[in-house]
């Protein structure tokens, strides 16, 4: 089925869905109907839901360990509100990751709309909301949602439509009154509440008009009233045709009654999969007495947590029977067309890049304390460096006079410039590494959310890197200014500023890479250690000439400190080439003079 045919069928469905939902009165604040209208406007671009099925599903991390889940079978109809319950370690989150296409099962099959498919191919059709909220702390609620909408819908919609769509989402999610509030985080004084943060996380996914919404413990850490409000909102969304699946631990009775379907797990096994209304009768038929006076969710969790062996049960699964090849092929074409449409709605690469750049600059501006501290540290580092060489009065190099004045030469000093390069590397590393760690390390969750939604990794990286340039320039400017005032070196201010900026950029890059690879609490220490290593390996101690005799100079040339020191040496020494034998100085140190451009590149 072509994308054009699919779009035409969606137009015909609009009226039918509208009639279906006219009678639905929203229980959410302030108006669920506005959200219905906002999502129904997207029918010209997408289907209104997908049917997810799975049979004999199994996942084991490796062959040596037992499976985390096994033998799971079920069908989640379009527009269903499914709750997944079970004790800790039952595999709820693992199953959710498989359904979201984030993890691939090791056995069994998965289907979309009745056709056997690899769910990872259609991740863009699904909105996944993890336990950890991913909104950026420095931005307002509206800025977070609007930026996501511009990336997700910027390829086919004008900005005026996107803004109106965001307003509808904000209104129905109950976020209007805080839309201009900074999101913040637990370490800042200004922040929105936990329930509001969870609503923002859902809005970030909902704004992209997904066909299914998967949430991992959406009520975790929330008070009872807030949890009920959010679950009512999700149930209302499911009535719009969006398939909603929630992992939930032990809900209150009011929340439990909202679910249309239940999937109950007992230590990797499936105990029940079917309508929520039939669950009580199912367990009572097997000898369990569930009193009307108790919360059925509590009773079910007691049963699931007991040592009694429970037989698996699954209601008749519609749409899971083998389908004819032609039907399966047609459904696959439909899904492919949907996936292509979702991908085509996204903003172009350069637009995504510019949006990430503007967002990054806005974050830098609002990180006032961090930015000011970074500038102060840079200035103090330059000041200390300048004081260290103040006594030399700018005379940092002494060589052998050129012929015929060799006899007039005094004691040579070839190592002071490399030593200053080493100290500069260390000072810049200490000043720049903490800020570099925060460039990417502070928003890993947001990065994963955007990548899962199909956003461009390269656009995110380029935009974020470009946004750090003003901060790098200002830090290098403060460092260079205070240093050059006290040290009065022979090198020009402009050249020294450029070299310092380049090394600042290297430290930012190394710190960002470390922050992306390790846990945040370890990133600062490891990045400082790495930056100190690459700074120390600059050819001063031991001298690069000695290292070359050991045939291990390749490692030193892997370190930015060596290239920085070589350019630093060239710009200090080559200015005296008319007077001193600079070739001897270069040979003694091991640096190759006269290639500053190459060193900087």
UniProtKB/TrEMBL annotation:
<dbReference type="Pfam" id="PF00005">
    <property type="entry name" value="ABC_tran"/>
</dbReference>
<keyword id="KW-0472">Membrane</keyword>
<feature type="domain" description="ABC transporter">
    <location>
        <begin position="52"/>
        <end position="292"/>
    </location>
</feature>
<dbReference type="InterPro" id="IPR043926">
    <property type="entry name" value="ABCG_dom"/>
</dbReference>
<keyword id="KW-0813">Transport</keyword>
<keyword id="KW-0067">ATP-binding</keyword>
<protein>
    <submittedName>
        <fullName>ABC transporter</fullName>
    </submittedName>
</protein>
<dbReference type="GO" id="GO:0005524">
    <property type="term" value="F:ATP binding"/>
</dbReference>
<dbReference type="InterPro" id="IPR050352">
    <property type="entry name" value="ABCG_transporters"/>
</dbReference>
<dbReference type="GO" id="GO:0016887">
    <property type="term" value="F:ATP hydrolysis activity"/>
</dbReference>
<dbReference type="InterPro" id="IPR013525">
    <property type="entry name" value="ABC2_TM"/>
</dbReference>
<keyword id="KW-0812">Transmembrane</keyword>
<dbReference type="InterPro" id="IPR027417">
    <property type="entry name" value="P-loop_NTPase"/>
</dbReference>
<dbReference type="GO" id="GO:0016020">
    <property type="term" value="C:membrane"/>
</dbReference>
<dbReference type="InterPro" id="IPR003439">
    <property type="entry name" value="ABC_transporter-like_ATP-bd"/>
</dbReference>
<dbReference type="Pfam" id="PF01061">
    <property type="entry name" value="ABC2_membrane"/>
</dbReference>
<keyword id="KW-1133">Transmembrane helix</keyword>
<dbReference type="Pfam" id="PF19055">
    <property type="entry name" value="ABC2_membrane_7"/>
</dbReference>
<feature type="transmembrane region" description="Helical">
    <location>
        <begin position="468"/>
        <end position="486"/>
    </location>
</feature>
<feature type="transmembrane region" description="Helical">
    <location>
        <begin position="372"/>
        <end position="390"/>
    </location>
</feature>
<dbReference type="InterPro" id="IPR003593">
    <property type="entry name" value="AAA+_ATPase"/>
</dbReference>
<keyword id="KW-0547">Nucleotide-binding</keyword>
<feature type="transmembrane region" description="Helical">
    <location>
        <begin position="523"/>
        <end position="541"/>
    </location>
</feature>
<feature type="transmembrane region" description="Helical">
    <location>
        <begin position="493"/>
        <end position="517"/>
    </location>
</feature>
<dbReference type="GO" id="GO:0140359">
    <property type="term" value="F:ABC-type transporter activity"/>
</dbReference>
